[in-house]
Every structure is written in structure tokens, then in C-alpha cells.
Amino acid sequence: PGNYRTQLWDKQSESFLPSTPGLGMHVEVKDPDGKVILSRQYGSEGRFTFTSHTPGEHQICLHSNSTRMALFAGGKLRVHLDIQVGEHTNNYPEIAAKDKLTELQLRARQLLDQVEQIQKEQNYQRVRRG
Q1: 60 has which bridge partners?
Q2: Is 108 within a domain?
Q3: Is residue 95 one of the residues assigned to a domain?
Q4: HSE on the CB side for 99, CA within 13 Å?
């Protein structure tokens, strides 16, 4: 499994601060043959797991899909990544339960953002008409 958390650059304090939960991170893992064995959307921090049957070097790619957040932070995003290797590191039922929760939390956040955007557009239309 891998754990990560992100920090966004804060211009006021000139330091990295914990990211807001609205930040979306995409995690992709490729095996030594270049085959994608994990491709999932997570939040500003998360825990991902993957099982590979191919020995060798694996590629782990994390990227933010929130350009709005990145621009707000002056384009600076710091990622703390912790990778654990081996059978003994996995508590599969616990990981599965946490993964489902973060997935639901992220989806709820995305839906709330969409509702907020619709409300803003409706208010804008009202102001223009009035």
C-alpha cells in the first residue's frame, strides 16, 4: 500500500499548508511491462493499494486534476508519499473499508461543488436580467 498527503503553497504565510478536502488527486500505477494496474481518483490525502504479479520496477504517478486549486496556490503542490512493500503490511478489510469511504467523500464533495457552481450561475443570470 501507499499513503500520501498533499500541501498547497500559501502566499500569505509563505509556507506549505494542508490541502483542502476539495483537491482531487489521480493515482496511476504501472507494472514493469507498462500495464496499468491501478487508476483511481482520490482526495487531497489517501491510501491506495495494488497487487502486482510481475516482479521489477513499478511506476507510480500522482497528479492533481484541480487546476483551479493549483493556480490559487501559485502552482505549488507538495506531495508526501509513503510506500510499504510486502504481504505483512496489508490489512485488506480495513483498507477496503477506508477506500470506499474516501471514494464516497470525494464524490459528495464533487457534487457539492457542482451545486455551488449552478447556484452561482443562477445568481449571475438573475443579476443580468434584473
Answers
A1: 29
A2: no
A3: no
A4: 16
Question: Cell digits for 72?
Answer: 490559487
* Dihedral angle computed from the Cα positions of residues 45, 28, 80 and 50, in that order, rounded to the nearest 10 degrees: 80
- Please check whether residue 110 lies inside any domain of the structure: no
Three-state SS letters, 64-85: ECCHHHHHHCCCCEEEEEEECC
Q: Which of 18-32, 89-103, 114-128 has the highest mean pLDDT?
A: 18-32
Q: How many domains does the chain have?
A: 1
Q: What is the 3-state secondary structure (H, E, C) of the chain?
A: CEEEEEEEEECCCCEEEECCCCCCEEEEEECCCCCEEEEEEECCEEEECCCCCCCCCCEEEEEECCHHHHHHCCCCEEEEEEECCCHHHCCHHHHHHHHHHHHHHHHHHHHHHHHHHHHHHHHHHHHHHC
Report the pLDDT averaged over residues 68-89: 71
